[in-house]
Amino acid sequence: MSATKPYHHGELRPALIEAASAIIRDSGIDGLSMRRLADSVGVSRMAPYHHFKDKNALLCAIAEIGFEAQDRMIRDVLERSDGEDGKALFTGWVRTYIRFAQDNPETYDLMYGKEIWKRGDPTPSLQQKSKASFRLWVDLVERMQARQVLPGEHSALRTAQASWAAMHGLARLLIDGIYAQRQDLEEIADTVVNLITRSNGD
Amino acid sequence: MSATKPYHHGELRPALIEAASAIIRDSGIDGLSMRRLADSVGVSRMAPYHHFKDKNALLCAIAEIGFEAQDRMIRDVLERSDGEDGKALFTGWVRTYIRFAQDNPETYDLMYGKEIWKRGDPTPSLQQKSKASFRLWVDLVERMQARQVLPGEHSALRTAQASWAAMHGLARLLIDGIYAQRQDLEEIADTVVNLITRSNGD
DNA sequence: GCCGTAACTTGACGGTGTAAAGATCGGGCG
DNA sequence: CGCCCGATCTTTACACCGTCAAGTTACGGC
Fold it and tell me: Quick one: pLDDT at residue B2?
């Protein structure tokens, strides 16, 4: 009876994440419903609940993967640009960050949006992963302060929070549909970098 | 028959906006449903649809009022601080902006969130009002550039977009529940201002 | 071979936005 | 004054949603 679909799916959990990601990618977060997801992997409505406590847990899992992908992208930039000067490195990071948000708007929304952080409640493992991701940013900011690309008058933490907020605001412009011109957005991103960094960076 | 409630409400539209604002204020945007709203003003579920095309239209109307309130707050700051130097003026504006977001998080979310701008579609009159509001910011930025509080190397528009994005990102931190410490947030806000403004402003 | 348990299904409940059609009333005109 | 039109409001219905509770199936270890 291999022709008819088996009672046990076998690989349901990864299949769910895969399918959910696909739905989110091209129908948005609002387009993802547990029922539609279940249908799309050919399983009953409640089956997903044996692998995820509720919808929030599923979203957290997807957001986690998002953080992993983003971290990977950013680590790549750091490794690739070894001999560059400070400001170029900083600019590269910001551009990469914005590009990630542009290319995966729905994932970014999940990672940093209120669906999880305010309305839902973030999984401990998601919290940890997001904290680690921010830690990367703080480290960069520290290095930029040492190289005098960023001013050192405030603590690295505060400077990191402030500059990250600026970057995040930029990403939000796109994601919330407030400002959609992709071309302009890159120019605005560069403007943000120029506003924040000291003109005489190392 | 004045004891029993009349068939025609008479002042339903303003009553709806009032009630909806109240619900949003203390139950969040997600807490507002057309049915609950209708119940709360003692009217049938479909009655609101005679005054607002759909839920989106109602939300736009409330967002508009939000813009009016925000504009009023900010104009107040401008008028009140006449003799101040440039940077103090700029700081005052940013603090006021952030405070508005802190005090009316749900309204702010409605005004600048994706509920209206991406998922829904903004009313023409809302678009106009939000554009006018941003225009205020561009004007301030122009004056700050003239006074050398902000650098003049980029156009006023780009500089306004970039700096507004920074401010908006800050507001978002709070609204999305990513960073909730109100005290810290004000410090971060000041850090943003210091990062953006030139140290030797007029 | 049996049986516990994990995986999955079915049905139901209360919630949502809103389309369609019916009921009621106030105001302007004959 | 009487009538009727149009604005206002109500009722009913539909297709969704998340998920609780209870039932069904199949696999792994004894």
Answer: 34
* Domains, chain A: 9-52 (1.10.10.60), 62-196 (1.10.357.10)
Return d(Cα B178, Cα B188) in angstroms, integer: 14
> Hey, are the CB atoms on A179 and B161 less than 8 Å from each other?
yes
Q: Å between B43 CA and D6 C1'? A: 20
Q: Is the CB of B27 under 7 A from strand C?
A: no
Residues of B within 8 A of A134 (CB-CB) are none
The sign of the CA dihedral B129, B134, B136, B139 is negative
pLDDT of residue A160: 97
Helix crossing, B55-80 with B105-112: angle to 10°?
110
State the pLDDT at residue A1: 33
Higher-confidence residue: B198 or A88? A88
Does A82 contact strand C, using a CB cutoff of 7 Å? no
B-chain residues near A163 (CB < 8 A): 195
Q: Over range A25-48, report the average pLDDT.
A: 93
Sign, CA torsion B81/B74/B24/B18 = positive
* DSSP structure class, residue B46: T
Average pLDDT of chain B? 91
The CA distances from residue B108 to B22, B78, B99, in Å, are: 14, 21, 11
Token readout for B43 is 């009217």
Q: Which residue of B has its CA nearest to A30?
A: B119
**Contact B31/B24 with Cβ under 8 angstroms?**
yes
For A118-159, what is each residue's pLDDT tens digit? Answer: 999 999 999 999 999 999 999 999 999 999 999 999 999 999
Q: What is the mean pLDDT of residues B88-98?
A: 94
CB atoms within 10 A of CB A46: 10
Please say whether the beta carbons of B149 and B66 come within 8 A.
no
Residue A16 C-alpha, separation from nearest chain B C-alpha, in angstroms: 25
Residue B7 predicted with pLDDT over 70: no
* Phi-psi group of B84: left, alpha or beta (phi > 0 → left; psi -120 to 50 → alpha; rest → beta): beta
Cβ density class B21-45: b for 16+ within 10 Å, e for less: bebbeeeebeebebeebbebbebee
Q: Which H or E element spans position B80?
A: helix B55-80
Question: Which residues in B lie closer than 8 A to residue A195 (C-beta atoms)?
Answer: 150-151, 159, 162-163, 166, 195-196
